[in-house]
Amino acid sequence: MATGNRKPQLGLRANLAQFALLVAVNALVGGMVGQEQAILPLLAEQEFHLSGYLFLLTYVLAFGITKAATNYFAGTWSDRYGRKPVLLAGWLIALPVPLLLIWAPSWGWVVFANVLLGINQGLTWSTTVVMKIDLVGPRQRGLAMGFNEAAGYGAVAVTAVLAGYLAANHGLRPAPFLLGLSYAVIGLAVSALLVRETRQYAQLEADSHRAAVPDYAMPSNREIFLRTTFTEPALSSASQAGLVNNLNFGLSWGLFPILFASSGLPVQRIGLLIATYPAVWGAAQILTGALSDRWGRKHLITAGMLTQAAALTLIATSHNFTGWLWASALLGAGTAMVYPTLLAVIGDVAHPLWRARAVGVYRLWRDGGYAAGAVVGGVAADLWGLRAAVWVAAAISLASGLMVARRMYETHPRPDRAVT
């Protein structure tokens, strides 16, 4: 990281200290989600006695809608005010979340806590993504996103296991949610005292773009939204694949614990199954992010969506711990192929001066997948049962992979040409 009068330099090695710090911060961001994953569906059934899968999934719906919307504004605010103020705001909003979950006297409190959690995730995760892209420059985006997402989802997995252990030994409340409270306090302190602003690195990369493309014109927010959502083939393909990917994650968050519990599995084993998906996803992203820098983006994304479809099919047809364990690992592998690579696509195509806003639009649609998963999964489960809901998600994942194969072009810059 640049200090004093030293000119900023792009690259992972040149900014290793700040990059590593941001990886650690994003692990704390992921842990805020992990505290809930194995616990809230069981809390809904055992303490609040909820019936109806769609109603139970209101907390996932609330989380998805607020996170998706906040992602959009996080990108715009990061360009306008800087990255660090947005990161700090996200951590301040995180502080009451675990306290609300601990003290919730009704399900409405849980839903409100997840509204705040969605805002926290939208502000903090989006900003750490943009800051890492700022620091590393164009050549190592896939690797950078691999580290970012590995830290976040690795922490989801570890925290899910810890929360399951605490719940089994100390009850569903308050012990599991004390993890989240500690994460929020540490995340706020580290971000305030140690993290530095990175917007100047985006400006540095933009200066090189101007030299190569002197007639460059800044698009409006509306134009960026339309390009990322509909008109630009790679950006819009990434947005739909991201949405479907998180549809699967949202469905797994809300329904998988109930499906596993229906076979009589104890809470610790359910916690292990729930953790396997993000654990494989998190760890493998370091490899898949780096591979996308070497092999390209498109084929990894296509293969990842098709792998997710196969894994969901196995989950729908399995009836025991071993089958679900292998299927969860496969689902994590498929997601790892997709997650950092989609972010790298956005970084490849979007100009540095509007990249944060493009990331915000992409994450708007991607994290809208949580809400889509809650609605699609809840309706399908209420109409046809839990396994039918998983089959529906498998079919949607298959269609998404085929759409990427047909519409997306390869975006990774070749070493012998400048990035445009």
UniProtKB/TrEMBL annotation:
Q: Does the keyword Membrane apply?
A: yes
Q: How does it sit in the membrane?
A: Multi-pass membrane protein
Give UniProt keywords alphabetically: Cell membrane, Membrane, Transmembrane, Transmembrane helix, Transport
A GO molecular function assigned to this protein is: transmembrane transporter activity
Predominant subcellular localization, coarse grouping: membrane
Q: Name one GO cellular component term.
A: plasma membrane
Could you tell me which Pfam families the record lists for this protein?
MFS_1
| Highest rank taxon of the organism | Bacteria
Q: Which PANTHER family match?
A: INTEGRAL MEMBRANE TRANSPORT PROTEIN, RESISTANCE PROTEIN MDTM, PUTATIVE-RELATED-RELATED
Please identify the protein, giving its name as recorded. Answer: MFS transporter
